[in-house]
Amino acid sequence: MTAEILSVGTEILLGDILNTNARFLSEELAKLGVNVYWQTVVGDNRGRLLAAYGLAFERGADLVIATGGLGPTEDDLTKETAAEYFGRKLVLHEESWERMLAHFRGRQMPPNNKKQAMLPEGAAVLANNNGTAPGCALERDGKMIVLLPGPPNEMEPMFLESVLPLLRPRTDHVLFSRTLKIVGVGESQAEILLKLLMDRQTNPTMALYAKTSEVWLRLTAAAPDEAAAKELIKPAAGEARRILGGSVYGEDGDTLAGAVVGLLRQRGLTIALAESCTGGALTSALVDVPGASEALLEGLVTYSNRAKAELLGVRAETLEKFGAVSEQTAREMAEGVRRASGASIGAATTGIAGPGGGTPEKPVGLVYITVSTDGKTEARECLFAGNRRKIRDRAVVTALDMVRKAAAGYSCST
Amino acid sequence: MTAEILSVGTEILLGDILNTNARFLSEELAKLGVNVYWQTVVGDNRGRLLAAYGLAFERGADLVIATGGLGPTEDDLTKETAAEYFGRKLVLHEESWERMLAHFRGRQMPPNNKKQAMLPEGAAVLANNNGTAPGCALERDGKMIVLLPGPPNEMEPMFLESVLPLLRPRTDHVLFSRTLKIVGVGESQAEILLKLLMDRQTNPTMALYAKTSEVWLRLTAAAPDEAAAKELIKPAAGEARRILGGSVYGEDGDTLAGAVVGLLRQRGLTIALAESCTGGALTSALVDVPGASEALLEGLVTYSNRAKAELLGVRAETLEKFGAVSEQTAREMAEGVRRASGASIGAATTGIAGPGGGTPEKPVGLVYITVSTDGKTEARECLFAGNRRKIRDRAVVTALDMVRKAAAGYSCST
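Structure tokens for the assembled complex are given below, as produced in the milestone run.
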């Protein structure tokens, strides 16, 4: 099956909004094994819309999925032109009309809203559970047009709830992916480690993606259905996990911070943080995880030497002799915040995030990260490339990974 | 002038990456007054690429801007097909070849890289200051194809540095925009305030955009050149600023955190933060601004009651009687962090970010924000809608705005 994606809206052509709908649909259609050779963006214009439908079918599509332009105003023409292209009349769809009346119950409905309940005769109507404009699917001579609303929060659920079930019986295979999330190993190192395994695989295929301080390994299998694809992926994923060991922190929707909070809670551990160059970003990453407050006792952003001394007990001699950006200070920060808070784990960062403040001895990007536990304090000296934000993001990921490993090892030492 | 944007790459058709290039180019072309009626995405395929160039010119484009597919591999065909379409040979461009050799100095260059220095005969070559693949512009019979690399960090500077100067003389007017950034006033309130002014304007036009806890007012003027457009915008922008008063925190690239840090530094003020529900996000927002360390003394994320008591001096009776999420606790947090740090301003947040932890009396979204200065402590009780992240973002914006107002008023009270 071959589909073309048609995004309708002058606001996309003006660059006012990013076309996330085309990406979402491309990704979903790829999973279904549907070929997409073209994506097109066109404005709300009758002539160009008619041309776009014609062109898509001429160049080989069986299916056109159009998003946007289903609104109540005169400008919205996607449905009208699709009906015209297939030679259909628009008729009032009672159920949609009643849904719309219910939606507006108690409030005055703008009269032009009725236009949204006018649908091409014979079309399959797709209910909108998140807005007023219903979608629809029209067919003629083995060609299909699916019309979906433009707002992603209406379009995406409608696709998943109503379009997927329509398309599945028409495709002969599905693509299913599983992603292993890796930290502490670079892309090229991961490639070397996995090369033999990756070369051997044809179904599932395996691909590496470099993210900020993370690497993702995506395994994609083609099979008649999702269950069969999952079975195909299982042995290769197991083998990759065996090779990568503790570097795999999670899968699919997992986040590194989520994995850290999960591990801390599972082991009944608590944590306290002392941040300098990461400036709250490490604390913030953990707080982003619902339930973080059970494990996170406090996070102190100690920019000034006063704060380092008074709140964390970093010694004046240490600051004087080695400076605020030093392994020694970082060690005393982690140990100090652990001691003061009574947490199982103390972690600290100090470094130079730039753009100013670098010297030949201590350049921009130099960051010390320390994690203190019951038995010992681990320290890492890092030199991160990139701008202020990238340096911070990389320091946060490294610190989270060090905490993860400390938490994983904790049960052994206590 | 009419342009069509052609994004080349199978990875876009598979939904692996979001097509931010098309949006960037659309926005830039709109500013130049260039019409864009179509955006097309096509894979790395000779036949389809040739068809795409042909189609764009047939349906009225004078200019096709293609991005992607300039890499060194056999798959990369954008340049080859453009040359073929205009009947040009590819020849070695010595300067690009030397740049590439210099880029790889000391490292081994993959041999297929030479392909990137092969450019269509007679093309204007666009230097790539951020990667190896040069861009180029070809013309024939009043039609132009501009080829740019796919990575946004190479494409965007190349467009601004090399393509803009090429296009400017060919357009008869420019669109120039200026954006006023507004905080503390909702979109509909801003609309009411500005309605008379907006209705009166035709050039510049004025449009409101709702952002998370901010509203942006964009004024766009059409004029023969940028200087004339700026002059057209000036009186309307001045009038809008007069109506909106202190709610306008900045313009264009300004951020609220940047405005706060700028104001603090300009007035020689320092700040310390005590965060509970915002969990480091407020500190992090300020630290994001280069030079923040001059004003920000410390940021304490005090999740536990111990931390609130020991680090901030919040009284046990206050926590017991009113709870951690209360105006009284928030007041003592801001006053405590200000006192302990010796900062000019202390700010604090405490609330329920959800998804758990809400009660009928203290629902999810309830946040107390306080700002303590020399003279007094201002407190605000907020009920924010949305998920955990939105509640945090809204609390951060509100806190920043309160700090901004406190800093602006500081000189009066001292």
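DSSP finds 14 helices and 17 strands in chain A. The longest helix of chain A spans residues 388-413. Further analysis is deferred to the final report.
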